[in-house]
Amino acid sequence: MSTEKTIYSHRDDDPHLTDDDLAEKVLRYIRYATFVDTSGISVMALRGTVVLSGNVAEEADIASAGEAAASVIGVSGVENRLTVRPGDSTD
After folding, report:
1. Which strand ranges, in their side-by-side order, compose the sheet holding 49-56?
2. What is the distance between the alpha carbons of residues 47 and 69, in angstroms, rounded to a whole number?
3. C-alpha of 62 from chain center
4. Euclidean distance between the first and final Cα of the chain, in Å?
5. Closest residue by Cα to residue 69 from 57, 80, 81
6. For residue 72, what pLDDT is reported?
7. pLDDT at 53
8. pTM
9. Sequence-ordered list of residues with C-beta below 8 angstroms from that of 72, at least 6 positions apart, any chain
């Protein structure tokens, strides 16, 4: 059963979500707010703190994803472990 929603909506702004629901909401919001390719990103949540891990295409995507995650209602902290995919850096 797929529960993935393609669009973030304000009805998702319940501050009392389970950890799994919060992680899913953060991933959807990153996709919605930043247009960052989230196919290489995984999100884990524990009592309001989210951990972003995986790979993104550009250095700027790391900060964008972290800022978007921090702005989600219900998130109290973000640990951003994202890295740029080898060979994708735009140095």
Report:
1. 41-46, 49-56, 77-84
2. 14
3. 10
4. 41
5. 80
6. 93
7. 98
8. 0.80
9. 22, 25, 26, 29, 50
d(CA 71, CA 29): 9
Spell out the SS3 assignment of 7-68. CCCHHHCCCCCCHHHHHHHHHHHHHHHHCCCHHHEEEEEECCEEEEEEEECCHHHHHHHHHH
Residues of the chain with pLDDT under 70: 1-15, 88-91
Cα separation, 87 vs 78, in Å, equals: 26
- Collapsing DSSP to helix, strand or coil, 69 comes out as helix
The predicted pLDDT at position 44 comes to 98
Q: Record the tokens describing residue 87, joined without a space.
A: 């060979």
- Contact (CB, 8 A) for 74 and 48: yes
Q: How many residues would you count in the chain?
A: 91
